[in-house]
Amino acid sequence: MTDCFASCTLCPRNCRVNRHETTGYCGERDVMRICRAALHFWEEPCISGTRGSGTVFFCGCSLKCSYCQNYDISRSRGGGEISVGRLCEIFFELKEKGAHNINFVTPTHFTPLIVEAIKMAKAQGFDLPFVYNCGGYENVETIKMLDGYIDVFLPDFKYFTPESGARYSNAPDYAVHAKAALDEMVSIAGSPKFDGDGMMTRGVIMRHLVLPAHVGESIEIFKYIYDTYGDDVLIGIMNQYTPMASETHAELRRRLTTYEYQKAIAAARKIGIVNGFVQDGETQKESFIPPFDMTGVYSP
Questions:
Q1: b or e along 105-133 (b: 16 or more beta carbons within 10 Å of the residue's beta carbon)?
Q2: DSSP string covering 183-196, please?
Q3: Per-residue pLDDT tens over the stretch 258-294
């Protein structure tokens, strides 16, 4: 595989820094750092199931939204360094614990290393589905690396307008890249497929977090996804927005109201969306955020 870290363009920031020597916009170098590898029960039912999704939380982020719920790991230098071989071991440990799948959270900036770990695991007979759980701000060439390795894609689609992308994530080109990346994900994973237990084995679930005062933008995203892909992309409409103490934008310093969320759901149904997921009010509690306590990083 080409040395993607020597002049990094793994994400749309296209830093072109040498990550063997310094960090990119993501805050990471060429060695994987993770802060948690454990069963996770808060994904969609067809991902978490009854036994949990084997979730690996990576440190760093190329998006760094102002309202990030994983702020402690997206911006800090916490977590622990692991090798490709150790990541492969984690897959088998999570499988032993009963995981339905292996779920990579915020993986973009480590994609080449993740692919190497998947290759290593498959050579040893590993057979669980792999899930790519990302912020949607992706370069198509990076997504193409995942063909033959990732089974299920869980991208966010955060913003539809350049103004929102710029204001909350310093990414006015967010929607342009999210659309192109989603197209490639659908090309790789195809239409949704499930096993006999209702667990997703192939396909794409597009997630959208409804932001306070932004229901109109949410509706534009729903229209775009359904008009473009119909039922080939499942849609998860999330209400779990949690205002963080560090949030500086006045409009985001409150929770999403029940009225706003129900308005978004009603609009999605009117558009024709019937295959998707909604959340109840419990997900708005800050306890929804898992503890980034190094569980599973170096030992089962």
A1: bbbbbbbbbbbbbbebbeeeebebbbbbb
A2: HHHHHHH-S-EE-T
A3: 999 999 999 999 999 998 999 976 555 545 678 889 9
* Cα radius of gyration rounded to whole Å, the chain: 18
C-alpha distance from residue 184 to each of 86, 138, 144, 179 (Å)? 29, 10, 7, 9
- Residue 111 CA to residue 104 CA, distance in Å, equals 10
* 52-88 b/e (C-beta count within 10 Å ≥ 16 → b): bbbbbbbbbbbbbbebbbbbebbeeeebeebebebbb
Structure tokens belonging to residue 170: 């310093």
Containing H/E element for 105? strand 102-105
State how far the Cα of 176 lies from the Cα of 195, in Å rounded to an integer.
33
Residue in the structure block whose two tokens are 């959208």: 208
DSSP sequence for 7-31: T--SSTT-----TTTS--TTS--SS
Cβ neighbors of 11 (< 8 A, separation 6 or more) are 25, 26, 62, 108, 109, 137, 138, 139, 142
Instruction: Compute the distance between CA of residue 29 and CA of residue 280 in angstroms, rounded to an integer.
Output: 38
Residue found by looking up tokens 């793994």 in the block: 10
CA-based end-to-end distance of the chain:
30
The answer to whether residues 108 and 143 touch, using CB atoms and an 8 Å cutoff, is no
Helix (H, G, I), strand (E, B) or coil at 294: coil
Decide if pLDDT at 196 tops 70.
Answer: yes
Both tokens of residue 189? 């994973």
Q: How confident is the model at residue 78, as a pLDDT?
A: 80
Phi/psi for 135 (5° steps) reads -85, 0
* Tokens coding 80: 């622990």
With CA atoms as reference, report the closest residue to 120 among 84, 78, 81.
84
Which residue matches tokens 């060439």? Answer: 141
Predicted TM-score (pTM) of this structure: 0.96
